[in-house]
Amino acid sequence: MRGVYTSGILQFFMENELWFPYIIGVSMGACNAANYVSRQTMRNKIVNISFVNDPRYISYKRLLFRGELFGMDFIFNTIPNSIELFDYTAFFSHNCNCITVVTNCKTGQAEYYGHKELGNSYMKILQASSSLPFIQKPVFYKGEPYMDGGLSDSVPIRKSESDGNTKNVIILTQPNGYRKKIEPLAKYAALRYPAFPGLQTTLRNRHIMYNETMDYIEEAERTGRVFVIRPQQTLAVGRVERDKQKLYAVYDIGYKDAAVFVPALKEYLQDN
Known about the structure:
Elements: H1 4-15, E1 22-26, H2 28-37, H3 43-49, H4 60-66, H5 72-83, H6 88-93, E2 97-104, E3 110-114, H7 115-118, H8 122-129, E4 139-141, E5 144-148, H9 157-162, E6 168-171, H10 189-192, H11 197-222, E7 226-229, H12 244-270
Parallel strand pairs: 1-2, 6-7
Antiparallel strand pairs: 2-3, 2-5, 4-5
C-alpha cells in the first residue's frame, strides 16, 4: 500500500502531460503503471484507496480459510470490468512499451512481459506481479506459476538499461538509504512452497538482491545516470494499510513531491 505514493506522483505527471515511451513496473507499481498508460488520471487514487475496507478487497478471514488476503478476482476482474472501468482501448492503443515483472516460482527468476504481447492475458500477469508470498497463491500463465515480481527484481533498472534506455526515472517508496533485512518468513519457504525450490532460494536471498540494487541505483544517481524520486522520510503506512486517511495523506505527499521534482526532472530529460 506504500504504492499510493507513486499513485500521487503519476497523477501529477498525467496532469502535466509528462509521458514516457517505456514504463516498467513491479507489483503495485505495475498496477499504477496500467492506469498511467490508459491515461485515467484519478483511477489509481480510486482503486487503490476507496475499497480498502471492503472485505472483497482485503479479508483476514479469507486469508485464514482460503490462503488469500487480497480478493484478487474482485481487484483484477470485478473492479476493472464492472465497477471502476479500466479503459482497455486506450491502454492498448498508446504507442509505448509497458512491461510487468513477475517471478517464476519454479526457477525463482524474473520474467518480463510487455502489455501488447499479453493482450487479454494482461490482467492475469498484473495479478501475478501483485501476488505476495504467504498471503496470496501463485498465478498460472501458460502452465507456469508466477508470483510477485519484486521477489526477483524489485527495481528493474538493469532491465530498462538492457533494453536500450540511457535515461531512467525511478520512483521509489522508501527514503534514501533504506535497506531490507532478511524476511522473517523466508525460513518457512520450504514448508510453504515445497514444489518451488527456485522460489525458496529467491525468498531467502531477496534482501541481498534488493540491497545490491539500491547500491547500484544510488551510485547511478550520484553520477547522473538516473533520476530518482523518493519520499524524504518513511511513509506512515503499513504493507496492508486500511486507514484511508493515512493512505490519502501518503498519496498527497507523492503528488506534492512530484511538483517539487518535475522542474529538475525536465532538465534531466532535456540534457544531452
